[in-house]
Amino acid sequence: MALMDIQVPDIGDFDEVGVIELLVKAGDTVKAEQSLITVESDKASMEIPSSHAGVVKELRVQVGDKVKQGSVVLVLDAAGAPARDSEQKTAPAPVEQAPEAIKTEAPAVVAAPAAATPAPVVAAAAVAEPAHQPGTPTGGLPHASPSVRKFARELGVPLAEVQGSGPKGRISHEDVQAFTQRVMTGSVQTKAQAAKAPAGGGGTGVGLDLLPWPKVDFSKFGPVERKELGRIKKISGANLTRNAVVIPAVTNHDDADITDLEAFRVQLNKENEKSGIKVTMLAFLIKACVAALKKFPDFNSSLDGDSLVYKQYFHIGFAADTPNGLVVPVLKDADKKGIFQISQEMSELAKKARDGKLGPADMSGACFTISSLGGIGGRYFTPIINAPEVAILGVCKSQMEPVWDGKQFVPRLMLPLSLTWDHRVIDGAAAARFNVYLGQILADYRRILL
Ligand code: CAO
Questions:
Q1: Share of the chain above pLDDT 70, in %
Q2: Is 423 a catalytic residue?
Q3: Lowest mean pLDDT across 87-91, 273-277, 295-299
Q4: From ligand 1's centre to the CA of 373, what distance in Å?
Q5: In this predicted structure, which of 88-97, 162-171, 186-195, 224-233 has the lowest mean pLDDT?
Q6: So what's the pLDDT on residue 206?
Q7: Which residues contact 22 (CB under 8 A, 6 or more apart)?
Q8: Pair 23, 31: CB distance under 8 Å
Q9: Going by CA atoms, what residue is nearest to atom 18 of ligand 1?
Q10: 375 CB within 6 A, ligand 1
Q11: 353 Cα nearest atom in ligand 1
Q12: How far is CA 394 from CA 134, 257, 407, in A?
């Protein structure tokens, strides 16, 4: 047995470099000049070749280690291996260099090894030649030049899964690009993606590979003040983000003619002035939504894995704006309550919300949510679904509009409706029907009896 330390040769301008890839493992048979590890400085990466042929006895470096000239890469049993031609000296093969690095000297040519590093000898200026020739597989590594390997590493492409189009299956830059394109379009899955994909097949596992959040020093542009987000904003923010990202949500906009309903509401409030209960448009909307949920039960369901859970109860959440942030109290069993009771309970819940006194029971169990900005203004908006509900109705301020009645334009009070729905559960046609039905009830409330 002729054990020898294989050391990092002279690597030119670079003092210390990081190990980013191990190309061999203990037990591998390596040839002279075969690449052993890849190292990377801030300017370039290069492969460190073996000065001798033999069998790897022990690796002395790991990914993440810092190495420099003379660091022992591995212990090699060179017994019986043909000695390397002493004239054919081994240089680290640069993988890719940043422009500044190219301007600097290539790794220096050293004629003789330093005393402390007898084994490897560095020779020849840096060249972009691959460390491995096509057709010379190295310990099971795919055939690819160092620059192609670096390119694949940067993209996170598993090179072993790329089909090479070159001689003897050599992988080119174009092969890596084509593979990446196929993965991004979903026509191919990497093994890692396939392993992560849910049972039953769905999903490409591409994931949200988002850019980091922009970090801006705003004080550079003018005076600023920093305030911590409130507790409600922190909690609702996390929920809203999940719901916005996970749910394939679509919003249908429509208008409902509430001319007669508003007149009825005003009349009711006049008649019942002394009761102290103010009937709101939202109460009528809640009742109308219950009727629509009964007619279109998919809207009163929740996704649970591959199943839909259909609720036999009708609890309606309504978004309430409070000084501390947005909360959603839930009006329970709306199907069993009349307009007066709904108006009264809503006003109590809204007060509790503003006073910050809602308990968890007041805010749980909703089947469907209404978010009304009608008291404020605006035309349409795209509310975010309150998971695990599958739809939400956004309502804006009603206004008089000229509506064509077949003969003439007549002034009608029109209520803008924005229905956001989960496309995994509901189709566009069903959403349009839901909105149309809602509009019909609001235009003629007698239809709720049908
Ligand atoms: N069109 C025109 N006027 C409307 C209207 C509509 N769609 N809805 C309400 N109004 C009127 C009311 O009639 C009332 O008028 P009067 O004072 O003359 O009677 C006035 O606007 C104020 O109503 P309100 O908003 O206080 O009452 P409400 O029952 O409509 O709503 C509540 C109650 C709790 C939903 C509401 O106060 C609220 O908090 N809304 C904001 C919801 C929200 O923030 N949604 C966004 C969520 S996404 O961030």
A1: 82
A2: yes
A3: 87-91
A4: 6
A5: 88-97
A6: 65
A7: 36, 37, 59, 61, 62, 63
A8: no
A9: 375
A10: yes
A11: 34
A12: 63, 16, 32
